[in-house]
């Protein structure tokens, strides 16, 4: 039978009390393990014991503890895990505080930007409203002047129509009166010519003077009174 390879020391001696790894099948003297503190005196865990080399090759984060798997060691392992996790939280707390500070800074910046934007919008509304009011005021004044001009022209036109309507009958009456006066004057002049001429010898029309056909001053005054 070949001797078992001892991985804990250079001695090849399988007669001493040793343990055999269930993974690599290498042997480890109990005395060597006890001297390094890698094995306890409990003998119940020798059937599924794993050497330190195989344990180091396991993935990190495994919750198994080496080498003893008793209830006491599990409780101790849980306590160690709890302590480690608490320490990790304590280590990560500055990052949490930093993130909270950054969040507060973001909120402050957002509030400042919102306040500035609100003030800018208010100023823009005020300036736009002022410009529009001034321009609309000028337009209203121009429209008012146009209305006044149109009303003035309309009133003048209405007065002209009234005067025209009142003057037309007066002009017609004056025309007919003037015609009557002229006709009367012509007849009077013709009658005077006939009175001064002999009865047997009528005066030719060519001998009637123009002066006899011109109205007398009294007749002119009568015409003026009719016109008035």
From TrEMBL:
<dbReference type="Pfam" id="PF00628">
    <property type="entry name" value="PHD"/>
</dbReference>
<keyword id="KW-0862">Zinc</keyword>
<dbReference type="InterPro" id="IPR019787">
    <property type="entry name" value="Znf_PHD-finger"/>
</dbReference>
<keyword id="KW-0479">Metal-binding</keyword>
<protein>
    <recommendedName>
        <fullName>PHD-type domain-containing protein</fullName>
    </recommendedName>
</protein>
<dbReference type="GO" id="GO:0008270">
    <property type="term" value="F:zinc ion binding"/>
</dbReference>
<keyword id="KW-0863">Zinc-finger</keyword>
<dbReference type="InterPro" id="IPR011011">
    <property type="entry name" value="Znf_FYVE_PHD"/>
</dbReference>
<dbReference type="InterPro" id="IPR013083">
    <property type="entry name" value="Znf_RING/FYVE/PHD"/>
</dbReference>
<feature type="domain" description="PHD-type">
    <location>
        <begin position="2"/>
        <end position="57"/>
    </location>
</feature>
